[in-house]
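User: I'm writing a short report section on ligand binding and want a predicted complex to refer to. Could you take this sequence and guanine and write out the structure as tokens? A short remark afterwards would be nice.
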Amino acid sequence: MQLLAGKPVVDALRAGLLSRIQALKERGITPCLTVTLVGDDPSSHIYVNAKDKDAKELGIESHTYRFPATMSQADLEAHVRKLSSDPKVHGILVQSPLPKGLDESRVVDCIDPTKDVDGFHPQNVGLLCLDRPGHRSCTPWGVIQVLKHYGITTAGKRAVVIGRSDIVGRPMANLLIHKGALGDATLTVAHSRTADLASVVREADIVVAAIGKPEFVKGSWLKPGAVVIDVGINRVEDASLPKGYKVVGDVEFSSAQDVASAITPVPGCVGLMTRAILMSNTVDAAERLS
Ligand code: GUN
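Assistant: Sure. The structure tokens for the complex follow:
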């Protein structure tokens, strides 16, 4: 069983980004990412701090705007519109989920699509579906880079994506049916209403698990030799650990490792890739906008 570690993929990607950022700086341009966080969701705070750290390490300017959960829809939309029209800003990310009462779609609609480094704007979603250039959703595009790095092709293979979220499942499914060695899969999208999920998974040469339920997919469901991409990042309580919890994926690693030919570790792959692609999308935006 091959462990598909994210670090070598991220290291290669960051090396390329550093030289592109240097070239931009020689022209007097510093890529600039803005992250907007509304409310006090604890996981979101951790993600936002990580994005800020990644940006600073690469020499990307990073601004984090924190607002209370009581912020109005109109004020949030006005804030995003202001960033959209600010020529110094290249990337705009509004951390999801927003507190109850705020309409995420209407906020995303206010992001200039050329600055939509999350790839959430309907224009970028459409471009991705059509396999035309645009900002691609970070997690699914990161998964494609992992497959590419490790020489895993999907053409002609049976792929199952478990989950149909706007952030992961839908864009992942679209990428896997693009034409090319990293697409051309014969695809099934499974979700919470899928009957007999285990038998659907057993058909797959490539399994992408993006359900958000700890260790939900069992090794016994897998076809021997399957490649498993685990998108899940779930905290589960574990009193024996100093932190009191551990992070596990959507796949039960202990049973999957005996059946799969390759598997992404959690933590240590897809989460790192998501962060790296966000930086890459920010540099793309800075290059296109300047
Ligand atoms: N919440 C969880 N993942 C993401 C992401 O990739 N982007 C944003 N904006 N919010 C998230």
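A remark for your report: The chain has a mean pLDDT of 98. The chain is about 40% helix and 15% strand.
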